[in-house]
Specification:
homodimer; L-amino peptidase D-ALA esterase/amidase; five-stranded mixed beta sheet; 17 strands; disordered C terminus
Chain lengths: 373, 373
C-alpha cells in the first residue's frame, strides 16, 4: 500500500452517491417467476462526459458507439444497467421517455426549407445501456425488464436522497445476479483522493468467474479495501471452503459484470474512455476468470466536471482509484447479496456459504483451530 | 473499369433479395404528422455471420459490440435499420419478440443447481440495429418508430416474395430520409461476380452531405454502375443545377446513412467486419462529405455461407463489390425517392429537381444545347 493509499478514505456514503450530481435508482422484481431488475444512474440535466470499455465476449449493449472518443456527443444523460440479457435493453426506452418528458437531452434544431418552415425541434436523451444475463432465474424465462423498468428506476433515482448510500445487494441490475455459482448482486464504493477528488463505482456482479479466492475462501476484491473497510472479514473455515468447492458453485454460467465509475473531476471524453478501460482491471482483480467469451463485461466511466481537470500525475491516481473502487464494490456486492431460492434454482450467498468469514457461527461444522485463523 | 467489371451483371432483382435466404420487410408511416419507418433484414433461422463498421460521428446503435470479431456470437438473426434517431432503437424490441416467438435466436441453457433443477432455457435473438435521424419531418416530433414498427417490418419480411426486388424509395428506414437537402430514401443493388458469388447492398440514404456532383448535377453513386445500369441518366441542364445550388439544398442537416451488405459467400466474422469497413468507401464515393460529426454512418455486412469461402483474390473482389453495390444502391435510393411536402417542410426529389437528368421535360426552363449534352 502506498503512502497515498494509507491516507485514502471513502466518501460519506462509500457509494456512487458521493459524486455530487449523480443519482441512482433501482427497480426490482422478485417473486411470481421474477428475479431481475434495472438500475438507472442519472447524471443531471446537463449530463456528464462519458466513456465505455467493452471487454467481455458476450456483450449486450446500446448507444455505446457514440462513446467512441472520435464521435460527436460528449455528454450522456443517464446510464442503464439491467438484467434481461439483450431483451432488457428495452429498459432504455422507458428512461429516454422520462428524460425527454423532463426536457433532458441533446436539443436538436433542424434547418428550415426555402419557405422558412422547419421541422419541430426535438430533445434526444443520450442513454448508454448494458444488460447482463439473468433470464429465467426467477422461474419464468419471459419475465424480463422492459421500458417500464427503466421508467421506474428513473423515478427512483429522481427521488433518491443524495445523502444516503446507494442501496446494494439483490436490487436493480443485481436482483438476478449470480457470480461463480454464489449469489451475486449490486455493490458500490467510493474514495476521496488526497486532492479532494472523489472516485466512486457501482458494480452489478454477475460473473462466470468466481469472486472467491479458491485457496483461502476470501473475497478477492476485499484485498484492495481502504483502511478498515473490510476489517470485519476473516479467512473462512476450511470446511466451508471445501463445501463451496465440492458444490462446484464456481462452474461457469451465463453472466456478465457491469460497472459504472463516476468522478467529479473534469475529464476529456478520451480520458473517460481510458478510465473505463482501466476499470476493467478492477473486475480482473475481483473476479477470476473475467472477460470470458460468455461474459459481456462492460465498464462505463462518467466525469461530472465539478472539480478541475487533474494533471498527469493526478489522473494516474484517478485511474488507479477507478480500478480499486470497482474491486471494492464487487466485494461489497457479494457481501450484500442474500441466499435465494426460486422455482428455477437455489443459490448460496457468500455470507451463508462462508459464515466464519463474516464472524457468524458456522451452520454445519465447527472450524478447527487451524482453519479459524 | 476492369475486365472483371465489364463482365459483371446484377442478380435477378438487382436488390438485396438476390442473396438467397435474405428477406427484407418495411414498415412505413406517412401522414398525420408521420414521416418515418423501419426496415428489417431477416437472415433465416440459423442467422448469418456478421460484422459492422461505425464511422459516422453521431451513431445511434444497439448490439454492435457483440459484432467485434473477438466477441463470442458469430451469427445474427436480423438487422434493423430505422428512423427515429435513438428513440427508434426501440424497433428492435418488436423484432426480438417476433423472432423469440418463432424460436429463432441463440439457445441458452443454464447450469442446474445441486438439486438438479435449472432455470428454464431461453432463446435470445441477436438483432443489431442502427437508427437515422428523421424526427419531426412529418410535423410531429413525438412520432417515432417503436416496437410495433419492428414487429410489422418483421412480418412484412416474412411475407416477402424472394423473387421480387426489395421495395425502394420512401419506404421503411428511407421513409423520412433527406440527403444534402434533396429527398433521400432507400435503395438497393446487387452484383453476381464472375465466380458466381452474389454481393448485394441496401442503403437508407439520409446524409448531411450531397449525393449530387456539384460540378455536373450527376449522382456520384451512378458512376460505378454496372454496364447499362444507369444508361438512362444524363448530365442535367445547367439551369437545374444552378437552381439546386442556389436553394442551398446541400446545407448540412441531421442525418446518417445506414447500409447492409449481404453475400452468399462464407466469411469469417473478422472478414465480415472488414467487408463492412470497406463498404464505407461506397458511401464515401456516393455522398460528399460523408462520415461527418452529425452523421452516424453505419454499415453492417452479413455472409450467409451458402457458397464456399473465397480465396484471397476472390475476397478482394467481394470487398470491392461491397463498396460498389453501396454506391449503386445510394444512387438508386435517390432515383426512387419522391418529392414530399409535410407540415414541417418540403423536399425536392432528384427526379423533380433534375428532370433533364432522367429524360423528363424540365418544368421551369429548357436546357441549352450545351447543357443537354
Amino acid at each position: 500500500m502506498t503512502a497515498d493509499a494509507r491516507d485514502q478514505r471513502p466518501g460519506p456514503t462509500n457509494s456512487l452517491a458521493d459524486v455530487a450530481g449523480v443519482r441512482v435508482g433501482h427497480h426490482t422484481a422478485v417473486g411470481d417467476g421474477w428475479l431481475s431488475g434495472t438500475t438507472v444512474v442519472l447524471l443531471g440535466e446537463d449530463g456528464a462526459v462519458a466513456g465505455v470499455d467493452v471487454r467481455g465476449g458476450g456483450p449486450a449493449t446500446r448507444e455505446t458507439d457514440l462513446l467512441d472518443p472520435t464521435a460527436a456527443v460528449e455528454r450522456v444523460h443517464a446510464l442503464v444497467l439491467t438484467g434481461g440479457s439483450a431483451f432488457g435493453l428495452a429498459a432504455a426506452d422507458g428512461v429516454m421517455a422520462r428524460l425527454e418528458a423532463r426536457g433532458v437531452g441533446v436539443q436538436v434544431v433542424q434547418p428550415a426549407g426555402p419557405d422558412g418552415v422547419a421541422p419541430p425541434p426535438v430533445t434526444v436523451p443520450i442513454v448508454p445501456t448494458a444488460a447482463l444475463f439473468d433470464v429465467g432465474r426467477g422461474g419464468v424465462a419471459a419475465n424480463r425488464p422492459d421500458a417500464s423498468f427503466g421508467a421506474a428506476a428513473h423515478d427512483a433515482a429522481v427521488a433518491a436522497d443524495p445523502a444516503q448510500p446507494v442501496a446494494s445487494g439483490n436490487v436493480g441490475a443485481g436482483a438476478g445476479a449470480v457470480a461463480g455459482g454464489l449469489r451475486g448482486g449490486l455493490g458500490t464504493a467510493s474514495v476521496r483522493l488526497a486532492d479532494g477528488t472523489t472516485v466512486a463505482a457501482l458494480v452489478a456482479c454477475n460473473a462466470a468467474g468466481s469472486t472467491v479466492d479458491p485457496a483461502t475462501g476470501e473475497l478477492a476484491g476485499a484485498r484492495v479495501g481502504l483502511p478498515g473497510e473490510f476489517d470485519h472479514l476473516r479467512p473462512p473455515a476450511r470446511v466451508e471452503l471445501d463445501a463451496h468447492l465440492a458444490a462446484a458453485e464456481g462452474d461457469a454460467s451465463l453472466n456478465t459484470a457491469l460497472a459504472v465509475i463516476a468522478t467529479d473531476a473534469t475529464l476529456s471524453k478520451a480520458h473517460a474512455a481510458k478510465l473505463a478501460g482501466v476499470g476493467q482491471d478492477g473486475l480482473a482483480r475481483a473476479i477470476r476468470p473475467a472477460h470470458s467469451m460468455t461474459d459481456g463485461d462492460t465498464v462505463f466511466a462518467v466525469a461530472t466536471g465539478a472539480r478541475p481537470a487533474p494533471d498527469f500525475v493526478r489522473f494516474q491516481a484517478v485511474l488507479a482509484a477507478g480500478a480499486d473502487t470497482i474491486s471494492r464494490a464487487t466485494a461489497h456486492a457479494m457481501l450484500a447479496a442474500t441466499s435465494t431460492s426460486t422455482p428455477a434454482r437455489s443459490w448460496h450467498s457468500y455470507r451463508d456459504r462462508f459464515p466464519t468469514a463474516v464472524g457468524r457461527t458456522p451452520p454445519t461444522a465447527a472450524p478447527t483451530q487451524e482453519d479459524a485463523t
